[in-house]
């Protein structure tokens, strides 16, 4: 039995995953091709990008303080592992869900990204390879 109900799945799929690079941004949508992401990957010499957040573990609303603390922990992990990343926002289509902060990580294999997300209590990540649509991928916490 999955922990991902239809409403949560719809929310994941309707969210825009936005990379913030100074005053510029590029966004990905699940199952959509996006030239902005491809251009960003090419500019950085990367083959893939993955979006990971530490907010609201197990899709349970957490306080702003808890979410900020979790984001700092994720940033520390990215720094410790010397990964290439940029800040990101996960912007939902529905006002029922808040904008979440996270990171767009370059050239982190999906398996490794799923392990990282699971360690942070997350159900899913979004991965996109150069010239491919973005994919929603679930951690073992989602099943």
Describe the fold and architecture.
The chain is an alpha+beta fold and 143 residues long. It has four helices and seven strands. Strands 2-1-4-5-3-6-7 form a seven-stranded antiparallel β-sheet, with helices on both faces. It is globular. The N and C termini lie close together (6 Å).
Question: Any descriptors?
Answer:
143 residues, alpha+beta, 4 helices, 7 strands, globular
Please give the structural blueprint.
Elements: H1 6-14, E1 16-21, E2 24-28, H2 35-44, E3 48-53, H3 64-80, E4 84-91, E5 100-106, H4 110-119, E6 124-129, E7 135-138
Antiparallel strand pairs: 1-2, 1-4, 3-5, 3-6, 4-5, 6-7
Beta-strand percentage range: 25-35%
Measured between the Cα atoms of the first and last residue, the distance is 6 Å
The average pLDDT is 94
Total strand count, please? 7
What structural class should be given to the helix and strand makeup?
alpha+beta
Q: Measured on Cα atoms, how large is the radius of gyration?
A: 14 Å
- Mind summarizing the main beta sheet? 7 strands, antiparallel
How do the helices and strands follow one another from N- to C-terminus? HEEHEHEEHEE
The backbone outline, from C-alpha atoms, is globular
| Low-confidence sequence ranges | none
Strand order of the largest sheet: 2-1-4-5-3-6-7
Estimate the helix proportion, in percent: 25-40%
Number of alpha- plus pi-helical segments: 4
């Amino acid at each position: 039995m999955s922990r991902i109900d239809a409403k949560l799945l719809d929310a994941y799929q309707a969210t825009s995953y936005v990379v913030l690079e100074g005053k510029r941004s590029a966004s990905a949508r699940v199952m959509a091709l996006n030239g902005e992401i491809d251009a960003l990957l090419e500019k950085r010499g990367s083959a893939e990008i993955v979006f990971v957040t530490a907010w609201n573990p197990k899709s349970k609303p957490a306080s702003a303080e808890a979410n900020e603390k979790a984001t700092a922990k994720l940033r520390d992990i990215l720094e410790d592992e010397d990964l290439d990343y940029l800040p990101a926002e996960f912007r939902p289509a529905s006002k029922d869900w808040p904008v979440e902060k996270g990171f767009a990580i370059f050239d982190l294999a999906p398996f490794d990204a799923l392990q990282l997300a699971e360690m942070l209590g997350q159900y899913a990540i979004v991965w996109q390879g150069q010239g491919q649509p973005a994919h929603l991928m679930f951690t073992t916490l989602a099943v």
